Amino acid sequence: VLTIDEAQRIVLESVAALPAEVMPLLEALGCTLAEPVVAQVSLPPFDNSAMDGYAVIAEDTRGASREKPATLRMIGDVPAGTALSRTVERGTAARIMTGAPVPRGADAVVIVEHTRPGGAGGVEVLVPAMPGDNIRPMGGDIQSGQVALSPGQRLGPGELSLAAALGHTDISAVRRPRAAIVTTGSELVEPGRELPPGAIYNSNQALLQARVVSAGASIAESMHVPDDEAAVEEALRRCASADIILTTGGVSVGEYDFVKNALQRLGEIKFWRVLIKPGKPVAFGIVLGRPLFAIPGNPVSALVTFELLVAPALRKMSGREDCAPRTIHATLLADLAHEPGRREYCQAVTRATEDGYVVEASAKRGSAMLTSTVGANSLVVIPETSEGLRAGEEVTVIYPVYRDPWA
Ligand code: AMP
Ligand code: MG
Q1: CA of 185 relative to ligand 1 center, distance in Å
Q2: What Rg do the C-alpha atoms of the chain give, in angstroms?
Q3: Mind giving me the DSSP string for 10-31?
Q4: What mean pLDDT value characterizes the chain?
Q5: Secondary structure (3-state) at 379
Q6: 28 within 8 A of 171, measured Cβ to Cβ
Q7: Is the CB of 183 under 6 A from ligand 1?
Q8: How far is Cα 305 from Cα 292, in angstroms, rounded to an integer?
Q9: 34: Cβ contacts below 8 Å, ≥ 6 apart
Q10: Collapsing DSSP states into helix, strand and coil, what is residue 207?
Q11: CA 300, CA 278: separation in Å to the nearest integer?
Q12: Is 300 left (phi over 0), alpha (psi -120 to 50) or beta?
């Protein structure tokens, strides 16, 4: 039996970042960049207009006003995607659209709102312009040769579109972990079937699948086996090509032997049982060269142990730097009883208010009570020595849970 801090340390020491893979930009959403992205072009690639208006020589508009407009002759139109071959010379202007290259000679763009039509197709400028007005200079965002994205960067919509703006279709990112899921229990029936007496539906399969996907990992295998040592062992062998193996059930005191025996035959157990509530019977080991988490069967225990141990492992495998669960301080809205002993984690809803975070824990504390998880986005942490937390107290909360904290 060990503390959760020791358990987390052992888990994070036992797993490593997965290798990089070149993948299409969209597939890399949420992944960690593996190799630098160096700008092959400048952004913008050319001086261009930030507004719809007229490309002018600023000097020509000096002192312009509604009463004394600067009248300029029109030499052409520059819609986006075209370029003007003519040069803007003193006394002339070109109509220009947002994103179009600024024609040679011009040093400012006057917005349409500061002009009115002049005679003979010309334009009257009503407000003086300064050189550079409404022009986005070449390389103003990034210059060719500069590093646009560095390894370790998490790839969200902004980062991926920057890669696209630089002309890339693919990117080298840390591969998503592929998880194998094995639920155990002879009492379990697949949802959709009829429920025989004494049986319950297998909900942990949906739970683990959903949590694996919401962590940005993928599902390599998902299977169910009865409480039978040979069946467990055979199932584990089918998981050997996954990056991580998750089992549920068969780890409580009465049952531990058959999962334990299978683990010991195929690998090494690093720990069994952690001083937490719920989730105490969780086990971790290396089986067939893969990290294996033997997660307790009680559904709320499964969620909590996933957050505390499996999610950090998936983050490390995904190339993240800060892998431990994130904590905040929040004001507790109602008393929470506790008997000193294990560190306890309560399903809770945390909200940001003008006065900081507030947290409301579910009144249901049972490790089999799945309704306690509805709407939950956080876990209130009750320290092992606590004799209960009081309403109004500042408490430690793991937030967010059940999703990637970078999402
Ligand atoms: P175990 O860890 O196998 O002793 O299971 C502890 C409790 O969790 C028992 O009440 C099991 O019926 C329940 N349980 C185990 N596996 C699942 C599952 N896949 N879905 C729903 N409940 C489960
Ligand atoms: Mg069982």
Answers
A1: 7
A2: 31
A3: HHHHH--PPPEEEEEGGGGTTP
A4: 96
A5: strand
A6: yes
A7: yes
A8: 13
A9: 20, 21, 151, 172, 173, 174, 319
A10: helix
A11: 7
A12: alpha
| pLDDT tens-digit readout, 142-175 | 999 999 999 999 999 999 999 999 999 999 999 9
| Cα 291 to averaged position of ligand 2 atoms, centre (Å) | 21
Count Cβ neighbours within 10 Å for each residue of 139-168 and write b for 16 or more, e otherwise: beebeeeeebbebebbbeeebbebbebbeb
Residue 288 CA to ligand 2 center (angstroms) comes to 23
Q: What are the tens digits of pLDDT across the range 218-254? A: 999 999 999 999 999 999 999 999 999 999 999 887 7
Task: Identify which ligand lies nearest to the alpha carbon of 227.
Answer: 2
- Contacts for 67 with CB less than 8 Å, ≥ 6 apart: none
Task: Give the mutation target among 208, 272, 273, 298 for probing the ligand 1 site: most ligand atoms within 8 A of CB.
Answer: 298
pTM of the complete model:
0.94
On whether the CB atoms of residues 230 and 184 are closer than 8 A, the answer is no
For the record, the structure tokens of 78 come out as 């520059």
Is the shortest distance between the CB of 252 and ligand 1 below 6 Å? Answer: yes
Q: Which of 353, 337, 261, 276 is nearest to 307 (CA)?
A: 276
**Helix residue ranges per DSSP H, 156-201:** 157-165
Predicted confidence at residue 15, as pLDDT, reads: 98
Take residue 40 and report the two structure tokens written for it: 């092959």
Question: What helix, strand, coil percent values describe the chain, rounded to 5?
Answer: 20, 35, 45
State if residue 200 touches ligand 1 by the CB under 6 angstroms criterion.
yes
Measured between alpha carbons, how far is 107 from 126 in angstroms, rounded to an integer? 17
Q: Which residues contact 118 (CB under 8 A, 6 or more apart)?
A: 69, 71, 72, 124
Residues within 5 A (CB) of ion ligand 2? 185, 249-250, 297
Instruction: Tally Cβ neighbours within 10 Å of residue 197.
Output: 4
Contact 32, 155 (CB under 8 A): yes
Average pLDDT of the segment spanning 247-267: 85
Phi, psi of 318 (to 5 degrees): -85, 5
Q: Which residues pair with 396 in a beta bridge?
A: 329
pLDDT at 264: 86
Q: What is the rounded distance in angstroms from the CA atom of residue 265 to the CA atom of residue 407?
A: 38
